[in-house]
Design brief:
By secondary structure, this protein is of the alpha+beta class. The chain contains ten helices and twelve strands. The chain binds adenosine-5'-diphosphate. Adenosine-5'-diphosphate (ADP) binds next to helix 8 and helix 10.
Length: 462
């Protein structure tokens, strides 16, 4: 493709251009030659009439000599023709005595000096000879092959053609290597992108062989993109399989519970009550999972627009604590707050933010043993508000810390089933804080406790 472009854009116009130049050059030289021949013919005709050469036979020999010399010097043939068309002198001695009535001679006798190139390339120049009474007594005809003109132009042309050919070949070779260096890697990148678009996200471009920097960058960016796509793809697959799994468990419990009542005869009343109670709690669990999922999906799709209003965070925390107090009391956990600054005002979406922080507090109570404590601290600088939820609970192992924000991720699956978590709470919190343009960090030590630190900007720009 590159080669074709090169031929079209480079070689073809160049060849056309040089051709035109040589044609013009040739024409120019022929024109010059015509003028020169006409000039010579004029000089000779002048001399012939001045010295009555045509009538004075004594002077003929003298003129014969002069004509031969002139013709030799100028590399042309001179014919002197009388008014009846008979050749009286010929520098080549071939046609003396013959009748020579070509078009140019007739025109010259008609008093029109002519210089013209014939089809066979020969240039004719004819000038009439006048006597002292201005009678036309003959014609001087000079003919010259245009070969010497063409030969000169042809010579230059050959040389320039050779040069052109050499340049074309050299550039073609360079192009070939340039194609190898630039196009091959691009082709590689392209083929991988095509495979990716077909859904093969495991494809990677080998960067090692690529010498060119920009293309290596492109390959690198493509690989990065592939990695991200692969991650999205896996997390989507995991998400779907997690959802199915999470919903399947309560469903099979419900099935087992109902079957065991159905298959037994004379089921005692208490068993009914107990099993139905269990079934209800499984249904509750499913509802909880589905509600959390819906919340997450809505956050993801940004379906519910985020509505920032200036809110006093201290009051907000007091409300959350008030609502969580019964839960903490149940486990004899001390739940308290510390305000390092009074009246911290921040732009938040109240409903979403309360849910996010409540999740953290609920977790803190959930994963702290009886008699522990949970502390909420609020602080701010001139740009950000900082809110931390610290507990004295079971903590999170170091290698689990990075995973807890993943959907459905739970450190201890069995225990969590008892505590009733869905594994979606922290994902919701994380998404919400990101929507507030903030960040969330965790520090934790197993058996000592966990601290979640949330930072959000005080002002949200539109
Ligand atoms: P869950 O509904 O299971 O609590 P989350 O997304 O809220 O789901 O939390 C994910 C996991 O992170 C929990 O299952 C738990 O193992 C761990 N975790 C969250 N908060 C704490 C905490 N304060 N202390 C210890 N572990 C925690």
């Amino acid at each position: 493709m590159l080669l074709l472009t090169y031929i079209l854009v480079g070689v073809v116009p160049l060849v056309l251009f040089t051709n035109t130049i040589f044609r013009t050059m040739n024409e120019y030289f022929v024109e010059e030659r015509k003028k020169e021949l006409l000039n010579q013919a004029n000089i000779l005709s002048g001399k012939i009439s001045a010295s009555h050469y045509l009538y004075d036979t004594k002077k003929r020999n003298e003129f014969d000599e002069e004509i031969r010399i002139t013709s030799n010097q100028g590399n042309f043939r001179v014919l002197v023709i009388d008014a009846s068309g008979i050749v009286v002198n010929d520098s080549s001695r071939q046609d003396i005595g013959k009748t020579y009535l070509v078009q140019e001679v007739i025109e010259a006798l008609d008093n029109k000096d002519v210089s013209r190139q014939q089809e066979d390339g020969v240039i004719y120049a004819t000038v009439s000879i006048l006597d002292e009474y201005s009678n036309k007594i003959g014609v001087v005809l000079i003919s010259a092959l245009s070969d010497d003109v063409s030969a000169t132009v042809g010579e230059i042309r050959n040389q320039s053609n050779l040069l052109l050919a050499v340049i074309t070949i050299v550039v073609a070779i360079l192009m070939y290597f340039a194609t190898k260096i630039f196009i091959e890697p691009i082709k590689k990148v392209l083929s991988v992108i095509i495979k990716m678009s077909e859904g093969h996200f495991d494809q990677r471009i080998e960067i090692k062989g690529i010498r060119h920097n920009e293309i290596a960058d492109l390959a690198f960016a493509c690989n990065n993109m592939a990695e991200k796509l692969e991650q999205v793809d896996t997390s989507r697959q995991n998400f779907v399989s997690n959802v199915s799994h999470e919903l399947k468990t309560p469903l099979s419990s419900i099935k087992v519970l109902s079957e065991s009542i159905l298959l037994q005869e004379n089921v005692p009343q208490e068993m009914y009550v107990e099993f139905l109670g269990d079934i209800i709690s499984e249904v509750d669990r499913m509802t909880e999972i589905i509600n959390d999922l819906l919340t997450l999906v809505k956050l993801d799709q940004k379906e519910v627009p985020i509505l920032f209003t200036e809110t006093e965070l201290n009051k907000l925390v007091i409300d959350i604590v008030k609502r969580m107090k019964p839960l903490a009391n149940e486990k004899k956990i001390v739940l308290h707050y510390t305000f390092l600054k009074e009246a911290i005002l921040a732009d938040i979406d109240k409903t979403k933010f309360v849910l996010a922080i409540s999740n953290l507090v609920e977790n803190a109570i959930k994963y702290t043993a009886e008699g522990g404590s949970v502390t909420i601290t609020i602080d701010s600088d001139h740009q950000n508000a900082f809110l931390s939820v610290a507990d004295t609970g079971i903590g999170i192992a170091e290698d689990e810390i990075n995973k807890i924000f993943e959907r459905f991720y739970r450190v201890d699956k069995t225990r969590n089933r008892e505590t009733g978590g869905t594994g979606l709470g922290l994902s919701i919190t994380h998404s919400t804080i990101l929507m507030h343009n903030g960040s969330i960090k965790v520090t934790s030590k197993e058996q000592e406790g966990t601290t979640f630190l949330v930072r959000i900007p005080l002002r949200q720009t539109a």
